[in-house]
Design goal:
6% of the residues lie in helices and 62% in strands. The protein is mostly beta strands and 202 residues long.
Length: 202
């Protein structure tokens, strides 16, 4: 890949390079590193795979080893950290579909300091979810969509764990005067339990 260079008021002089490797026709890997003269160095990586037909896996990683943001008085403020994300989707045998969307963020400070866009920087939530689903002729079945939502602030981390039971949805077809209507009825046994946990960073 072509080397990258530039200059920034907050990062200083920027020098970066990366490599691209495709060992097979269904997987590729991109690795890169950037040196910031005023702050430190950053790492980036993207792994993409299609292990079988109708399945895809993408893993991205971004991290910064920060020397700290200089202050007029006092020690520099360290804004280093990392964020890693995994996205997996697949069509399984017998009509099943699997989805996993996982995100790991070290701190909100890292996201505020190093996000590429304003929308990403102001987003204080980290969502993780995974589920299985299957559609039948007149119904659908979804496994417990295990979900974890974390809300970050500079001094607090609040985590909500959702552990719902399996959900089934049935559909009935009614033909009235030549018009076919479909009615969907969610199962009443579907319940969601939410567990809140708050951690304070001193």
């Amino acid at each position: 890949m072509l080397p990258d260079s530039g200059e920034s008021s907050s990062k200083g002089y920027i020098f970066g390079d990366g490599v691209y490797w495709a060992p097979t026709d269904w997987a590729d890997l991109t690795l890169g590193g950037y040196y910031y003269s005023r702050r430190g160095w950053a790492q980036r990586g993207v792994l993409r795979m299609r292990p079988w037909e109708n399945a895809s896996l993408e893993i991205t990683y971004n991290g910064v080893e920060d020397r700290g943001l200089p202050q007029p008085t006092g020690p520099p403020i360290n804004q280093g950290g990392h964020e890693a994300r995994l996205l997996f989707t697949a069509l399984l045998p017998d009509g099943w579909r699997a989805v996993a969307d996982l995100d790991n963020l070290s701190s909100l400070t890292y996201r505020l300091a190093w996000s590429e866009t304003y929308v990403q920087a102001v987003n204080s939530e980290v969502r993780n979810s995974a589920f299985l689903t299957k559609n039948f002729a007149d119904s659908a079945l979804t496994s417990p969509p295990s979900a974890i939502r974390t809300t970050l602030t500079p001094r607090r981390r609040s985590t909500f764990h959702c552990a719902p039971r399996p959900k089934s949805v049935s559909a009935r077809w009614i033909n009235r005067r030549g018009r076919t209507c479909r009615f969907i009825f969610p199962s009443r046994r579907f319940q969601t339990r939410r567990i809140a946990r708050t951690q304070y960073q001193l």
